[in-house]
Write a structure and sequence with these properties.
mainly alpha; Rossmann fold; 5 strands; binds adenosine-5'-triphosphate; binds L-tryptophanamide; 2 domains
Length: 340
Amino acid sequence: MSEEIKNKQAEKKKRIFSAIQPSGTITLGNYLGALRNWVKLQDEYDCIFAVADLHAITVRQDPKQFRNNILEAYALLIACGIDTEKSLFFIQSHVHTHAELAWILNCYTQFGELSRMTQFKDKSAKHADNVNAGLFTYPSLMAADILLYKADLVPVGEDQKQHLELSRNIAERFNGVYGNTFTVPDGYIPKVGARVRSLQDPTKKMSKSDENANSWVAVLDKPDTIMKKFKRAVTDSEARVCVGEGKDGINNLIGIMSAVTGKTSDDITAEFEGKGYGDFKTAVGEAVIEELRPIQERFDQLINDKAFLEEQYRKGAEFALKISQRTLDKAMKKIGYLAK
Ligand code: ATP
Ligand code: LTN
């Protein structure tokens, strides 16, 4: 166990848990909206992060591709700045307590509650040929992830708020029956968090499962691909770089530029006064390429150092098991299971 993580636990810093699915590539939206904030949180909180690969099989995965995606996600998060000396970082399927507590929590979660989840409704419409039970009970597994570590705060985006609310309800219900067992988690809304929108339909969020690859930028996209995608970004016919109503495309590009450079939207408007959208798109593309360059370089090193990655995720899983087993044992004892 890293000294730094031990110290944080001893100091009783608030604990944060969050996870990301290794489904496909990680986008600029994931990076600016979530990962970059996780990196910042590491100094202030006792952070635990996971690659949520158990969640990912709620949609069909190709085995070879899936194996690559899991390792790639693990390496990419480290490349983005998740520091295994400061934070506990592991792969969900390596820690068996998650699936075990998920089963238990399933028995304290109501069919009606799960039926109301908008992600379930959306995803079952999208994958009508595979509306499996895992897709339906996905939120109980997410609740298990969070509750096993007694997380105080859970940074999630808008789309996961409903699942977090359900995790709170499950924890409260269980505590109500058996007495205080689980910490009831709160959402964590970062002070600065960018909502990145699709480059092709800026009324929608940038999403890695969007079939149109021009709608998203992957953190690992090559510089010329990134530039091409920005040049093709949908804008409007006004030809003025400023924030405005009905200018979703430009608003999005200004948001990205601002998130990446730290400039305000007024600064950006002033800088591009009298210039066309072509110049602006090129500038945004360049700024994003520069932001991602060091991450890509670090990723290239890491992905070729399998021994290092293996050591990190093994250590992470071992430590995660220790923490989570205690919570699982406590919950099982309260239910009435016979001790081993
Ligand atoms: P999917 O397309 O499969 O739903 P996704 O790209 O939306 O995937 P998730 O794995 O659901 O990504 O989300 C991981 C994290 O990234 C979450 O915290 C989510 O809120 C955040 N996130 C995802 N897309 C964006 C976006 N466009 N802008 C800001 N944050 C985002
Ligand atoms: N469902 C989340 C990923 C996720 C998660 C979690 C987030 C799995 N377990 C626990 C926060 C806490 C997603 O798809 N973004």
